[in-house]
Design goal:
Blueprint lengths: L7 E10 L2 E8 L12 E9 L5 E7 L9 E7 L5 H8 L5 E8 L11 E7 L3 H8 L9 E7 L9 H7 L5 E5 L10 H13 L7 E7 H13 L7 E7 L2 H5 L1
Parallel strand pairs: 7-8, 7-10, 8-9, 10-11
Antiparallel strand pairs: 1-2, 1-6, 2-5, 3-4, 3-6
């Protein structure tokens, strides 16, 4: 992790449609971030929440870790959410406090097996970072399954396909029930079972997105023969572990 993190600067901003924005950011001091594909940074939006806390939000680095000085994040505008709205409106040149990189959702260096990436909703940003990482380059097979509610959700499929290295096989399932729907976890488990497990267990399965879906999905993959410890999760929201604390 970078020590004594200085600020980051928004170097460039591009609308992505559907209330989303692609930000290219860099450290103000010009140094490298030192991240691996799949990791994230926490950005202090500068907004004070009603309880007095600052609105700090985590964003996965969706660009390749071959470039460490200017990196990309995608920000989805979420209703009246103060953090996402600020980052959707700030101009290029704005500077923000940050910390990171954080997170262990990444392929190990030298990985050479079969890997499956599963993303629900905004978890596609972490999956993009992993797929474009140096560690993914040696994988014998890399499949990506993106589970979303509709075609116009967050990032477009053409955007995602454009960012993926040629060997990565992308499947998109756009009929996932809405967040919070009682049938959502079961539907996700069915989609993964139907589309990706016919050739046997993967050596690594990395999942990002809705925690209410990912934990039942991990149990399902384990029951179908996933090797012990091979399924890694990162909950972007609905993390049941946090709720139990």
């Amino acid at each position: 992790m970078a020590q004594g993190n200085p600020k980051i600067r928004i170097a460039h901003a591009t609308p992505l449609g559907h209330g989303a924005r692609l930000l290219r950011v860099e450290r103000v001091d010009g140094a490298e971030l030192g991240f691996a594909g799949g990791q994230y940074v926490i950005i202090n939006t500068g907004v004070t929440l009603p309880g007095g806390k600052l609105a700090k939000r985590a964003y996965s680095l969706l660009s390749s870790d071959a470039e460490q000085r200017a990196v990309e994040i995608a920000v989805k505008r979420i209703g009246a959410g103060p953090g996402s709205n600020v980052l959707n409106d700030l101009p290029a040149g704005a500077e923000l406090e940050w910390s990171g990189p954080w997170g262990k959702l990444r392929l190990p260096p030298g990985f050479s097996g079969r890997a499956l990436l599963i993303a629900t909703d905004t978890g596609i940003t972490a999956a993009l970072g992993i797929a474009q990482s140096a560690a993914a380059a040696g994988a014998a097979q890399l499949d990506l399954l993106w589970l979303v509610e509709s075609e116009d959700y967050f990032l477009s499929e053409p955007f995602v396909r454009e960012r993926l290295p040629a060997p990565v096989r992308l499947s998109v399932a756009r009929d996932l029930p809405p967040v919070g729907h009682p049938e959502r976890p079961a539907r996700a488990c069915a989609l993964v079972s139907e589309q990706h497990l016919s050739a046997g267990p993967y050596d690594a399965v990395l999942c990002a997105g809705d925690g209410a879906v990912l934990y039942p999905l991990r149990d399902r993959l384990t029951s179908l023969g996933a090797p012990e410890g091979s399924v890694l999760l990162e909950s972007f929201f609905n993390n049941p572990l946090k709720k139990s604390l």
